[in-house]
Amino acid sequence: MTQSAQQEEVGGQFHLLGTRRFAPFFVTQFLGAFNDNLFKNALVVLLTFHATGWSTLSPGLLANLAAGIFMLPFFLFSATAGQLADKYDKALLARAVKLLEMLIMLVAALGFWLHSLVVLMGALFLLGMHSTLFGPVKYAILPQHLREDELIGGNAWIEAGTFVAILAGTLIGALLAGAVDAPAWIAVGGLLVAGAGYLASRQIPAAPAPVPNLAVNLNPLSETVRNLRLARNDRVIFIALIAISWFWLYGALFLAQFPAYARSVLSGSESTVTLLLATFTIGIGVGSMLCERLSGRHLEPGLVPLGAIGLTVFGLDFAWVTHELAEISASTAATGQALVQLLQTPAVWRALFDLLMLGGFGGLFIVPLYALMQLRSPVEQRARIVAANNILNAAFMVFGALSAAAALSAGLSLAGLFAIAALANALLAGVIHRLQPEYGAAMVRWLRRRAG
After folding, report:
1. With the CA atoms of 33, 162, 385 and 360 taken in that order, what torsion angle do they form, in degrees rounded to the nearest 10?
2. Residue 158 and residue 452: Cα distance in Å, rounded?
3. What is the tens place of the pLDDT at every residue in 218-231?
4. For position 51, what pLDDT does the model report?
5. Which of 163, 194, 404, 430 could crosslink 102 through cysteines, CB 3.0-4.6 Å?
6. C-alpha–C-alpha distance, residues 418 and 355, integer Å
């Protein structure tokens, strides 16, 4: 073993942050996710706590509407994005996407200047399109630059980094949303972040196209069908894509409710939203980073059913404690409580623990599935299979956002929404186990090894 390999073995997944084949790409994708969430969450917080100045719609409905608008481009443009990532150098595509991001921030600035919710939602849609174009690059480039025994660590960094970016974007976005007299600073901040992302993207090493002669089909409908057929050619891959898409529906459903949860269940303020998101993010980060250690730096499908069990158990308990907290809030009629006051309630600590565990088991669930998708996909089709994954992600998440909005508008409580989601997670986990029993068998083998 060479000295470099020995250092990598000792450093585990952390050595990747010191390599040019991973670090610039990681920074680029981190800043992109940060910017998406800076704008999206700043807009949601602004509309949740100052809705009357922008719209007559309810804050809860606006939050779910924004989530749906952001995800819609993934369904519409992922097929085209997958073709582009198989046809062109992925490093060059990353730079082009960053330039597009800067232009979108100028559109957002115009929306704030005009005080137009329509223009702002249009900018949010365009940010979703920017992320759609980057999606196939994000996951298809990893197997080109990382060894097989580095993929779990690389995916762990990507997933952990994405949720840390969500947290940081929300935190900064909430601060900027607090400047109600000058909300255009949200767009200014986004423009600066996009520029930094472009500079980072210029350091990404070349990632040559696997199919440079690919004829791009500009019909999104027919190409979407073709991409889904490519994914269905391998049963293992397709089931993994369904599981990944369900996780994003499940996680996004919880995340989208945090502003309304903080206001109506906890009687808190904007800072309470950050606390909820920080707790969930820490869980995702810890769970993701544990994957490499628990899997021995190799793909371990046994972690998937373990993660699914945790997502159900702690999802149900979070629904239960949400019901208790809602009753406490209704009886006290408190509003705008400070964090110090909130943390004096034992049930709040239980809710935070549930969120921490939801994030942790979510990390165990999702990282092996992404690695499996990358390893099983043929090189010449990998970006299009990632695009198929994004299409399914979008279909699931848009359906989840619209269903949540409809259920809440019909009078369903947040506790009821979380309980239904957790029970659905248990049902889907059972279906996946029936279709792919290897996951359960792998979990039993993994548990026996750990016990021995």
Report:
1. -150
2. 31
3. 888 888 888 888 88
4. 55
5. 194
6. 12
